[in-house]
Amino acid sequence: MDPKRFALRTYGCQMNVHDSEKVATLLEDSGLAAADGESDADVLVINTCSIRDKAEHQLYSDLGKLRAWKAEKPGRIVGVGGCVAQQVGDRLLGRFDHLDFVFGTHNLRKVPAMLDQAEDGQRVAWVDEEKSQARFDLPMRRPDAPAGRRHKAFVTVMEGCDMFCSFCIVPSTRGREISRVAREIEAEVAALAEQGIREVTLLGQTVNAYGRHDVRRGKAAAVGTMPFAELLARLDAIPGIERLRYTSPHPLFYDDALIRAHGELRHLCPHVHLPVQSGSNTILEAMRRRYTRERYFEIVDALRAARPDIAITSDLIVGFPGETEADFEDTLGLVERAGLVDSFSFKYSPRPGTTAADLSGEVPPEVAQDRLERLQTQQKAQTLAYHQTRVGQETLVFVDGESRRGQGQISGRDPQHRVVNVDLRPGAALAAGDTLAVELVEATPHSLLGRPLDPALRP
Ligand code: 5AD
Ligand code: SF4
User: Does residue 172 share a domain with residue 113?
Assistant: First the structure.
């Protein structure tokens, strides 16, 4: 009999993308095969996000439509995981009678067993918090992973968040902070390097808080963790790893050692995505971010002093309760003063159970929308200006695949994590994972255009 086929639909952050990779491996290990698409699948797993209300509504709309998908072929199974699953739990089963199983953010390992139960007609939800290192005990990426990702991989170093920013749902969907034992991380990175992975992105909700609780309690050696900068140094030394990145850090956990690491470690990339959220000290305090704009500038300046070619990107929220026009202008000012190369910006979205959800001073939606547009206009101009400073420089591109335009144009990333597109001579066989030396010749707000240094590759 042909194996059952599965498909995954993933929303949200890189942690979710990585969790979906792990679920895929678990399903393959239990005898299923990846489907070509959802129409060809027997099992569909949705990995959900609840960071903003839009993301959450997406699930309800998806589930509504999946009634028809399920009816098309008998025996089809639908499972839901991720942050909405963690929060809503078995009430999801009550609300959608065609949903078969629900698994929380700590329960990926339960998916094959839940699938078996679903095949027996049982409907189960599993959303317990797993507080031990066992939660990191998941199968590694396989050497035959999809071609687009053959040269780069995510590696989880810590999970959960103890920061409780007043707007954020993550502490309640991802649970308490826990850091993974360093030797396990090193072993995973070394094994990935042996499979040909050359770029590793370390993942954690507050990734540079790695080890902090153990270090503070004097238990790091006993537990097997260490300060984040030390972990970076160890991973930087693993043969075969050419690019090391981490996401997302919190400004509170930049110490001298981490700043120095950016100047010293050969493979640590000149890019940091450093969420700031707001440029107003009043709003930062109301958000419980625990730093000021001045401290943010200090970190950015120190990173630039250590690594002059570093690109800093960020996340920003507009329309937080009580945000005045002056507060918002402080955000615009910060974007400029910090020289943000790019940013993701969002309208504040109240999340149930967070302390900000109870704050008064709601910003009218049209004001929030206007601020978002002004912020994005400024950022776009700044991104373009940054890209223009890069024109004339040489850089190395790790090829991800064909560009959106197609027609022999490939797309990849430079060390600063900027998208670089390159036109190639027809027949120049470059594949995902190849490295291409280019000169940057043109800038747009979204990407750079590179010209191969090797004349034989040029159109
Ligand atoms: N409303 C709007 N944006 C939010 N983010 C997190 N919570 C909210 C919220 N309630 C944004 C932050 C964070 C990014 C992942 O999502 O900017 O850094
Ligand atoms: Fe959310 Fe703040 Fe934790 Fe980031 S640090 S995940 S914004 S609570």
Answer: no
| Same-domain check for residues 385 and 398 | no
Whether 281 is covered by a domain: the verdict is: yes
> Would the CB of 165 count as within 6 Å of ligand 2?
yes
Instruction: Give how many domains the chain has, as a whole number.
Output: 3
Q: Which one, of 274, 429, 282, lies nearest residue 338 by Cα?
A: 274
The domain of 277 spans 147-390
Residues 43, 189, single domain; the answer is: no
Cis bond upstream, residue 30 (ω within 30): no
Distance 351 CA to ligand 1 centre (A): 10
- Which ligand has the shortest distance to the CA of 55? 1
204 ligand 1 Cβ < 6 A? no
Q: Which of 94, 126, 158 is the last residue of a domain?
A: 126
* Ligand 1 near 315 CB (within 6 A): yes
250 CB less than 6 Å from ligand 2? yes
Question: Residues 355, 298: one domain?
Answer: yes
Q: Is 250 in the pocket of ligand 1 (CB under 6 A)?
A: no
Atom 13 of ligand 1, nearest CA residue: 315
Query: Does the CB atom of residue 52 touch ligand 1 within 6 A?
Result: yes
* pLDDT tens digit sequence for 217-250: 999 999 999 999 999 999 999 999 999 999 999 9
Q: Which of 34, 36, 9, 42 is nearest to 118 (CA)?
A: 42
Average the pLDDT over 354-373 and give the result: 97
Q: Tokens at residue 451, please?
A: 């010209």
Which of 13, 158, 250 has most ligand 2 atoms within 8 Å of its beta carbon, as the pocket-test mutant? 250
- Both ends of the chain: CA-CA distance in Å? 49
Provide the 8-state DSSP code for 65: H
Chain mean position to CA 356: 24
Q: 410 and 383, same structural domain? A: no
What pTM did the predictor assign? 0.96
**CA–CA distance from 447 to each of 395, 422, 450 (Å)?**
14, 11, 10
